[in-house]
Every structure is written in C-alpha cells, then in structure tokens.
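Teaching soon. Got one?

===
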Amino acid sequence: MGEREQEQKKKKKRKKQITILETEKVESKLLPELVEALDKLEKEEKHVDIAVCPKCKSPRIRRVNTMSGDMFSHMGFTRPEYECRECGWRGKDFLKATNKPTTVRDVVLMAEAKDADLESKRKKKVDSIKLI
C-alpha cells in the first residue's frame, strides 16, 4: 500500500505542475503584430531590437520614471526598471525581440546558456535527492 500511495501522490503532483504551467502561458494580442512589423523591417533591411515584456510578451514596456519609484537608476546607482503597460509587470530584466541576423557567436552563446541552465537544473535535482 505504501508504494501505491507514493505513486498516486507523485501523479497528483505532476498534474498540479502541468496545470500551473498551462495557466501561466499568456500571450499578448500584440505579439503577432510585433512579428509582422519585424518581418517588414527585415525586408527593408532595417535591423532593430524591441523590448518585450517577459510575462505577457507585449512590446508595450517602458522605463519607470523617477516619480514612480525609480530614483536610484536615474541617478546611475542601479540598473533601470521597466514596466509593462499591458499586464503591469515591473522589473529590471526584459526580453528583446530582434530581426538581426544570427551570427555564429550568438549561436554559441545561446548554446552555452542552455547548457548552463540544464546543469543548474541537474544540480538542484541532485541536491534535493541528497536531502531526502
């Protein structure tokens, strides 16, 4: 009975994790427009980077002004803070959508970042197993 109960608990936990991941998938209505605009600019051979919200993927993010609580970044002490006009997200890190051609160096950097991410996940998994 003990093993059977543990298996059922694991299945329930997996179902909860899957439902959490599915509910967090929120796409902006502006995302297809952004992709189309980048494609048009690429055809005109104009290459740009556009800031995108990491939460809702909307391109409508802006830098937080001084009066809204970001005094230190305007003085140069910290990194600037950004906010999304669509979902209200606030943070210092954002995504960049670009239509610039990918170089070999960029591909190598992306591969290294992916490997580092997988390694950190493995390490966390091993650490959690050691705790048990």
Observations:
- The longest strand covers residues 49-52.
